[in-house]
Amino acid sequence: MRAYVQRFGRNLHGRDIAVGDIHGHFLRLESALAKISFDPRQDRLFSVGDLIDRGPDSIAALEWLSRPWFHAVRGNHEDYAVRYETVDVDNWAINGGAWFQLLSDVQKRQVADAFAALPYAMEIETAAGLVGVVHADCPSVDWQDLATVLMQRRKRVQCIWSRDRITAGDATEVAGVRAVVVGHTPLISPVTLGNVYHIDTGGWTPHGHFSLLNLSTMTVEV
Ligand SMILES: [Mn+2]
């Protein structure tokens, strides 16, 4: 597998945009990107993970990951797929993973391998400083310690599952980084706690929408 933390240099030509949980709703994502005139020739899109499950088109995640301007971290739903040989299938199905059981053995392996290659964290250099992306929460006090901290399995679990910060309203800043962007917990509108931006506004739910966050200005474009 690749490194736990994947680094991206400055985008000198276009925008860097982050999006919350997609959960198989790639057509809705395309509509949201059209609203901001997203230009794949120069803009980049960074996903907080949970590309799959619940929505109608989970398998499209693989095609999206092959696009050079689309990047994602591992969410807890990708982690189900990575662990497909030992996962509690019934529990996963309740959480939207029934589609996976209909795949051939070859497809299952292909999907699991693609998601196993995803990093737990991405860090993007922007004009205003370094911005981090993880699925649920940053498990280290200082972002600069993250690669080391993620060597512990329980910290990787925290990274893709924890709701402690948002549940407690904890506004402690993550040191060593300008901002951290997370998803995992559906909200009516984006919530910023300290320098942690929670952007899953339920674009995959009947009444939610995708929030597209500009990583240079840390403002929501739509
Ligand atoms: Mn999640």
Structure, explained:
With 222 residues, this protein is an alpha/beta fold. It has a single domain, classed as Metallo-dependent phosphatases (Purple Acid Phosphatase, chain A, domain 2). It contains eight helices and eleven strands. The strands form two sheets. Strands 1-5-6-7-9-8 form a six-stranded mixed sheet, with no helix packed on it. β5 and β6 form a beta hairpin. The termini are far apart. The model has no long low-confidence stretch (mean pLDDT 97). Manganese (II) ion is lined by residues 21, 50, 75-77, 135, 184. Manganese (II) ion binds at residues 21, 50, 75-77, 135, 184.
Bound molecule types: manganese (II) ion
Rg, nearest Å: 16 Å
CA-CA gap between termini: 34 Å
Strand order of the largest sheet: 1-5-6-7-9-8
- Supply the CATH superfamily name: Metallo-dependent phosphatases
- Average pLDDT over all residues: 97
Which outline best applies?
A: globular
Structural class by SSE content? alpha/beta
Q: Give the strand tally.
A: 11
- How much strand? 15-25%
Low-pLDDT parts are: none
Counting structural domains, the number is 1
N-to-C order of helices and strands: EEHEHEHHHEEHHHEEEEE
CATH-derived topology: Purple Acid Phosphatase, chain A, domain 2
**Range of helix content:** 25-40%
CATH architecture descriptor text: 4-Layer Sandwich
Could you give a short account of the major beta sheet? 6 strands, mixed
Pfam family, one: Metallophos
GO biological process, one term: RNA decapping
Organism: Pigmentiphaga aceris
InterPro entries: Ap4A_hydrolase (IPR050126), Calcineurin-like_PHP (IPR004843), Metallo-depent_PP-like (IPR029052), Ser/Thr-sp_prot-phosphatase (IPR006186)
